[in-house]
Amino acid sequence: MFDVLEPFVEFAFMRRALFGCWLLCLSSAPVGVFMVLRRISLTGDALSHAILPGVSAGYLLAGYSVVAMASGGLVAGALVALITAWSSRRTRAPKDRNLAAFYLTSLALGVFMVSIYGSSVDLMHLLFGAALGMTDAALIWIAGTATITLWTLLLLIRPLVLDSVDSACLQHGRLGNLAETSLMLLIVLNLVAGLHAMGSLMAVGLMILPATIASHWCQRLESYLLSAILLGAAACTLGLLGSFYADWPTSPTILLCLGSVFLFSQLFGRHRSLLGNRLRAWLRSHPSKEIHS
C-alpha cells in the first residue's frame, strides 16, 4: 500500500512539489473559507484572471523568475481590485459588473501578451502551472505567503467572522473596511503564490473547492478551517501521484479530485445536501421507523 508513496521518498522534486502544495493549502484554504462565508467566491475567480497581465509582463521581462512574476501579479491584481472599488463608488454601477469587465479585459490582455511575445508552452505554463517543477524560490514565496496569511487571519478573525455573519454590522466602520480590504489583498497574494503550482486559472480552485466541500460537513469554524486544509492537502497528494504515475496534468487532476468529493458532498453531506436533506426529512416524518432501525 505504501509503495504508492515511494515517489515522495525517492525523488527530491516530488518532495518539493508536495511540500509546496501542502503549504499552499495551509494558506489558501482558510482564505477560501472566508470567501465562501462572505459569498464572494466568484470575486476570487475574477481576480485569478486579473493577475495574468502582470504575471505575463514579469515573465516576458525577466523569464521564469518567481519574484518578477509574483510582483507583476500582485500589482495587476491589486490595481484591478482598487479600480473596481473606485469605479463602483464613482459610477454607482454594481461592483460585480465592473469586476467582470475588468477581469475579462485583463485575461484577454495577458493571453495576448504571451501569445505575441512568448510561445504556446509559456502560455500553458502560466495558465495551468507546473507543480513538479517547483523551485526553492517558489517554496520560499509560498512559505512567506502562508506566514503572512495566517498571521493576518489570526489578527482579524473577529471582524472577518462578524462581517461574514452580518455584513451590515461593520459596513460603515473602519474595522469593516480593514477586514474587507485585507481579505481582498490576501486573495490576490494567495493567487500569486499558487501561480507556480496551479497556474493563474486553477489557483482559485484550491481556495474555493476545499472550503465548499467542508461547508457540507462542518458548522464550527475551527473544524471548517481544519477540514478545508486537510481536503486540499489530500487532493494535492493524489494529484501529484496521478501526475507522476499516469502523466496527467497536475493542477487539473488536483481540482478533479476535489470536484468529485464536492459532488459526493452535494448529494450526501450533513448540511445543505440534496439527498441528505430528503433523508432527514423522511426520518422526521417517520419517527417509529427511525427508532426500529
Brief descriptors of the model:
81% helix, 293 residues
Describe the model.
By secondary structure, the chain is mostly helical. It is globular and about 70 Å long. It has helices at 6-10, 12-37, 41-50, 52-62, 66-91, 95-117, 120-128, 136-155, 157-165, 174-193, 195-198, 205-215, 221-246, 250-268, 274-285, 287-292. It has one domain (2-292): ABC transporter involved in vitamin B12 uptake, BtuC (Orthogonal Bundle).
Write a compact overview of the structure shown.
The chain is mainly alpha-helical. It has helices spanning 6-10, 12-37, 41-50, 52-62, 66-91, 95-117, 120-128, 136-155, 157-165, 174-193, 195-198, 205-215, 221-246, 250-268, 274-285, 287-292.
**What are the secondary-structure elements, in order, as H or E?**
HHHHHHHHHHHHHHHH
Helical content class: over 70%
- Which structural class do the helices and strands define? mainly alpha
Q: Mean pLDDT, nearest integer?
A: 84
Secondary-structure arrangement, i.e. CATH architecture: Orthogonal Bundle
In total, the number of domains comes to 1
List the topology elements.
Elements: H1 6-10, H2 12-37, H3 41-50, H4 52-62, H5 66-91, H6 95-117, H7 120-128, H8 136-155, H9 157-165, H10 174-193, H11 195-198, H12 205-215, H13 221-246, H14 250-268, H15 274-285, H16 287-292
